[in-house]
Amino acid sequence: MAERNGATLAGIVLGVGLGGFFDGIVFHQLLQWHHMLSTVRTPDTVANLELNTLWDGLFHAFTWVCVAVGLLLLWRAARRGVLSGRELVGALLMGWGGFNLVEGAVNHLILGIHHVNETAPRSQWAFWDWGFMLWGAAMLVAGWALHVSWRRRYAAA
Q1: Which three-class secondary structure state does DSSP give residue 49?
Q2: What average pLDDT does the structure give for the chain?
Q3: Rounded-to-integer distance, Cα 77 and Cα 84, Å
Q4: Interval 37-83: pLDDT, tens
Q5: pTM of the model as a whole
Q6: Is residue 22 over pLDDT 50?
Q7: DSSP string, 112-143
């Protein structure tokens, strides 16, 4: 069973990277709801926007590394023939959901460096932040359920 953990780890790392890319592409770039440091240095001047864009880029570099490492781990697991679609989808959901929970707790609640939707009235920011984290928790639970069902099926086979 220990060799199977490589595929699970690959899915989790890929999920973190894909979740981060979704966050950065959708919330930072397409919707332009926030940037990495947008409550620390509001992007209302060119200098502040440049700083926020730099930190957005560093965040994307981190997510790119997660995807690259996840693909390497997935490739290694595939070469060993230890892949399962249910296991991979479950692990992806666990990684993405875990990303949302950690990023939401650290960046939104603890550090307060940005919030999900800073275009909403400030009094609503917490609702958006908690919704983001609940979405992450739901993905984490769904991924865990898929993973556990796969483990049971694999152990019975």
Answers
A1: helix
A2: 93
A3: 10
A4: 999 999 999 999 999 999 999 999 999 999 999 999 999 988 888 77
A5: 0.90
A6: yes
A7: -S--S-TTS-GGGHHHHHHHHHHHHHHHHHHH
Number of helical (H) and strand (E) elements in the chain, helices listed first: 4, 0
Burial class, 151, CB count within 10 angstroms (exposed 0-12 / middle 13-18 / buried 19+): middle
Domain definitions of the chain by residue range: 2-156
Query: What's the helix, strand, coil split of the chain in %, to 5?
Result: 80, 0, 20
* Cα–Cα nearest to 150, from 108, 105, 89, 94: 89
Residues ≥6 apart with Cβ < 8 Å to 12: 70, 91, 92, 94, 95, 98
Reported in sequence order, the residue ranges of the chain that DSSP labels E, i.e. its strands, are: none
Residue 91 — very low, low, confident or very high, per pLDDT cuts 50/70/90?
Answer: very high
Q: Which amino acid is it at 87?
A: E
pLDDT at 1: 47
**Of 80, 79, 94, which is closest to residue 9 (Cα–Cα)?**
94
